[in-house]
Design goal:
Blueprint (H helix, E strand, L loop, with lengths): L13 E5 L6 E2 L2 E2 L3 H15 L3 E5 L16 H11 L3 E3 L6 H9 L5 E3 L7 H4 L3 H8 L4 E4 L10 H5 L6 E3 L1 H15 L5 E5 L4 H12 L4 E4 L3 H8 L14 H14 L2 E3 L4 E4 L8 E4 L8 E5 L1 H13 L2 E5 L12 H12 L4 E4 L3 H9 L7 E2 L3 H9 L4 H4 L10
Parallel strand pairs: 1-4, 1-7, 4-6, 5-6, 7-8, 9-10, 9-15, 10-11, 15-16, 16-17
Antiparallel strand pairs: 2-3, 12-13, 12-14
């Protein structure tokens, strides 16, 4: 177990918190404040303990130089509304003025630094830059799970110079994902979707050691189906991954894992909104592309879900962003939401968008805030932003 914010005496101290405020903006307004809200428990706790809070985050990809459209001002405004207090927004994240303002911060006050990625030293994990950031606080807390897979100055470098711990959001992410990988209630069922097998190879390999059933949807299913000799028409396929797909299928069989591929398909000639669709099984005729799992597949997936005690879902099972190819993903999302007495984990990325659009986020046990970070965690890769935080004395993990 890692040191958490509760394990450190932060009373009256300047607490430097790395948050993930990489939120969508439109015309200078935050259009989705989910990530800001996710950080509130850690920020509020620090304020209640009489700390002064210095927040730092990246926003977008400004490539190491300032960009007006990626300034943190709209984020500071929205955070102030949610906290119901003034958030002091700085014009930079390092420098004499920032250092002075940090020193002058009083208990209960909140300061937000400018976009970290306006400095190329952030992504380069430059030690001098990390030291400058560390100089702003007396304690460092990393609550940015969405950036934990990056060894950047604010996620890894700073932890070398200050007493360090994780925040409540990071703690929750680690707890749910670790438990799924190390000690899941069984049966443990994983739903994997998305376009490419190549994006999920390591996740599949790692999870095959741990799961009871793996339900495969999305375009990556067609690579597995073609590897088994099934006709897939003009569907997206990774021909260079067919041998690998066969290997994975053999491994699943050897381990007694139910590796379930779609048995019917929604197909279309065009990948456009409102395109004419048809349902075929098995095999997809030439001239047609698989765009979603069919109704029989949805029913089969539900049979496995209803028996599950732990469900992990990563990736939509069809071309979710284009209607009517979103039906399978919607049905699976609702089926997972309706499970009772089951630990349900939504593993980042597009699956999060799906459950949010369905309005069932609060029915899931845990919805991960990190796309790339949750994928790497599920691959079994140690994340630099977590590794950098010390373990609690006598407890590993």
């Amino acid at each position: 177990m890692k040191v958490t914010i509760k394990d450190i005496d932060i009373t009256g101290k300047r607490v430097l918190i790395r948050v993930d405020f990489n939120v969508p903006l439109k015309e200078g307004v935050v259009t989705d404040d989910t990530r800001i809200r996710a950080a509130l428990p850690t920020i509020t706790y620090a304020l209640e303990q009489g700390a002064s809070v210095i927040l730092m985050s990246h926003l977008g990809r400004p490539k190491g130089k300032p960009a007006d459209e990626l300034k943190m001002d709209p984020v500071a405004k929205r955070l102030g509304e949610l906290l119901k207090r003034t958030v002091k927004k700085m014009d930079d994240c390092v420098g004499d003025e920032v250092a002075r303002s940090a020193r002058e911060l009083k208990p209960g006050e909140v300061m937000l630094l400018e976009n970290l990625r306006f400095h190329a030293e952030e992504t380069a994990n430059d030690p001098a830059f990390a030291k400058q950031l560390a100089g702003l606080g007396e304690v460092y807390i990393n609550d940015a799970f969405g950036a934990a897979h990056r060894a950047h100055a604010s996620t890894e470098g700073v932890a070398r110079y200050l007493p360090a711990g994780i925040g409540f959001l990071m703690e929750k992410e680690i707890r749910y994902l670790s438990r799924a990988l190390e000690a899941p209630d069984r049966p443990f069922v994983v739903i994997l979707g998305g376009a490419k097998v190549s994006d999920k190879i390591k996740v599949i390999e790692n999870l095959l050691e741990k799961v009871d059933s793996m339900l495969i949807g999305g375009a990556m299913a067609y690579t597995f189906l073609k590897a088994q000799g099934e006709a897939i028409g003009d569907s997206l396929v990774e021909d260079d991954k067919l041998d690998l797909a066969r290997e994975l299928l053999t491994k699943a069989e050897a381990r007694g894992v139910h590796f379930i591929l779609p048995c019917d398909h929604v197909v279309a000639r065009e990948l456009t909104e409102g395109a004419q669709t048809s349902i075929v099984a098995p095999g997809i005729p030439d001239g047609w592309k698989g765009v979603d799992i069919g109704p029989k597949t949805v029913s089969e997936f539900k049979v496995y879900l209803e028996e599950a005690k732990t469900v992990l879902w990563n990736g939509p099972v069809g071309i979710f962003e284009t209607r009517p190819f979103d039906k399978g993903t919607r049905e699976i999302g609702l089926a997972v939401a309706e499970l009772s007495g089951v630990t349900t984990i939504i593993g980042g990325g597009d699956s999060v968008s799906a459950v949010r659009q369905l309005g069932v986020t609060d029915k899931m046990s845990h919805v991960s805030t990190g796309g790339g970070a949750s994928l790497e965690f599920l691959e079994g890769i140690p994340l630099p932003g977590i590794v950098a935080i010390p373990d609690l004395a006598g407890k590993k993990g």
